[in-house]
Design a protein that fits this description.
Blueprint: H1 7-10, H2 13-22, H3 31-50, H4 55-61, H5 81-93, H6 109-123, H7 127-144, H8 151-154, H9 159-175, H10 180-191, H11 207-227, H12 243-247, H13 256-259, H14 283-294, E1 302-309, H15 314-317, H16 321-325, H17 330-333, H18 337-347, H19 363-369, E2 372-376, E3 388-394, E4 399-404, H20 417-430, H21 435-446
Parallel strand pairs: 1-2
Antiparallel strand pairs: 1-3, 3-4
Amino acid sequence: MTTTTTPEASQALAERLAATITGLYGQALPDQTVAMARSLVLDVLGLCVATRGESYIQAILGTVEPGGNCTALGHPGAFNVYDAALINGTAAHGEDFDDTFEGGPVHSGAVVVPAVLAACEREGLGGDALLLGVAVGAELMCRLALPAPRATHKAGFHPTAVMGALAAAAGVSAALRLTAQQTASALGIAGSMASGIIEYLAEGTSTKRMHAGWAAQSGIRAALMARGGFDGPRTVLEGTHGFYKAFAPSLTPALHLLMDGFGSDWVMQTIAFKPYACGTMTQPYIDCAIQLAESGVQADDIESIVCKVGEGTVHRLWETLAVKHRPPTPYAAKFSTPYCMAVGFFDRRAGFSQYTEARVRDETLLALAAKISYVVDPANEYPKNFTGHLRATFKDGRVVEFDQPHMRGGARDPLPPAELQQKFVDNLVYGGWSEAQAQQAGAWCDAVFTQASMQGAAQFRQ
């Protein structure tokens, strides 16, 4: 009996992805995809300006050489393509206020937008190239998170870092209109550039902040190397020594989730925008804490608070519990659910001002955080859905519970456009821009995909 092999079956996953990506060249994208890509650009621009004066950005600026034709948003002068992507990606992700994908979690905008914007500036490309690159890169980044949920974190890697390198390579390849063979090689090359461990959790250090920027500049380099003829392994994703074997070894990946509907069923349309400047899975718990506070409860009346949580969140956001009760740094506080809940209870918000050296040393706040613990809920939907719950026991014996069934800002309850726009304006003003400059920047974002050249981003070198 003779069997035949279809061309698709004989292709590696990177080749199939590349063929699909190149098939999008010249095609109109769905309105929702365009709207999401525009929102990603808007959010990233606001965050880059908001964090431009932070010490970790100043540290990176001290490592780069001036010169080039690319923009580090909110900074004077021009930079080479790699440095611009590194600075912008680090700035966008630095305060964990950037977008997230609930099926991941991964942070697409902070990786893909800086990579594609810098590449378009370097090459003199316009808004159509930016749109395709952002859409493709964000789509692949979301899909890379689906085949092996929780396994990348379990292996000690940051999904945004390792998946971001491949996503940036895909986005830049699409913007540059590389051939299918070049795009497949770019993905293969990026697999060897992917890196980023989550040991920052131990002491709240800043390495996570640079992961998005590092992935962005890696993706650019991979795409440009592929365009120049450098080749990468076709089996970078599914191979014996490939991406999922290296970064998610505890699970057999459901690789069909990468390709099923790619280019027609746009998963990136469900990307979430955060209302709070902290870890993704803490967000619904902050909402629960705010509900508790708004019920008229005083912190001194509370004996204890116990939260139902997903098992996959424990090692990053709950343990070691004693450390989470007293985070060693403001950055570490962003990944402490007890702290985030306590600051939400007292301040009814969790923005830039809630993660300062003075705030994380507030003994009244820390006393409430120390009352918060967790139990693992086997029925928790994480990572498909980010939920929140608390059960508060009072000193007089009363018990109340609050549930948040989903993440506010996510696909089930997206932020209204006006609220996302206000976040953008607030971030720019926080970074030192005027209301007039914020309005000008917002107008540029509204029309960004119709611009003849992305070199217009030079207006934000200030």
